[in-house]
């Protein structure tokens, strides 16, 4: 996490994920992972967690739109910033609610021009455009599954 975080051009946290980020670390280690932005409808973030990050200059961007997921809201914020980045890494994309996981797969398909990679400790998912590809799985283990989405 430290390597990915330190190389990030911008860090955006969905509102509910902010609680998990806060609870994952203590003291000085927590201070190393201060996101630039928090985006979402803010219905999930705990008040003390929001206050902690606000005091550390995290910009809280409330956006209520029941037609988009918090991940979509984060992608839209990233695009609105005009930040040039070659890849969007979504950390902690798996292991929560199954409806969130499926919606994350849908986001890959909805934003094909954005190189989005969904990550967790032992899983990764990304969209392959039409054509031939070589998928190297040595970093993730012996298994590779392909899920056809779209045409």
In short:
It is built from 6 helices and 6 strands; from the N terminus they run H-E-H-H-E-H-E-H-E-H-E-E. It is an alpha/beta fold.
Structural key phrases:
single chain, 151 residues, 3-stranded mixed beta sheet, 6 strands, 35% helix, globular
Strand-helix topology:
Layout: H1 2-6, E1 12-14, H2 15-24, H3 27-31, E2 37-40, H4 47-54, E3 59-62, H5 70-81, E4 88-91, H6 98-110, E5 116-119, E6 124-126
Parallel strand pairs: 1-2, 2-3, 4-5
Antiparallel strand pairs: 5-6
Describe what you observe in this structure.
- There is one protein chain.
- The protein is of the alpha/beta class.
- Helices cover about 35% and strands about 15% of the residues.
- It contains 6 helices and 6 strands; from the N terminus they run H-E-H-H-E-H-E-H-E-H-E-E.
- The strands form 2 sheets. A 3-stranded parallel beta sheet has the order 1-2-3. The protein has a 3-stranded mixed beta sheet with strand order 4-5-6, covered by helices on one side.
- A hairpin with a 4-residue loop joins strand 5 (about 115-120) and strand 6.
- The chain is globular.
- The termini are far apart.
């Amino acid at each position: 996490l430290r390597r990915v975080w330190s190389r990030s051009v911008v860090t955006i946290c969905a509102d509910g994920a902010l609680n998990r980020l806060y609870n994952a670390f203590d003291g000085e280690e927590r201070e190393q992972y201060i996101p630039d932005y928090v985006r979402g409808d803010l219905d999930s973030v705990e008040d003390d967690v929001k206050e902690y990050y606000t005091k550390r200059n995290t910009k809280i961007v409330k956006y209520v739109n029941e037609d988009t997921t918090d991940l979509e809201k984060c992608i839209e914020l990233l695009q609105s910033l005009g930040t040039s980045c070659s890849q969007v890494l979504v950390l902690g994309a798996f292991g929560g609610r199954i409806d969130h996981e499926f919606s994350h797969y849908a986001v890959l398909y909805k934003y094909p021009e954005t190189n989005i990679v969904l990550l967790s400790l032992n899983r990764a998912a990304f969209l392959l455009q039409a054509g031939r590809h070589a998928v190297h799985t040595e970093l993730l283990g012996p298994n590779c599954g392909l899920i056809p989405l779209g045409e």
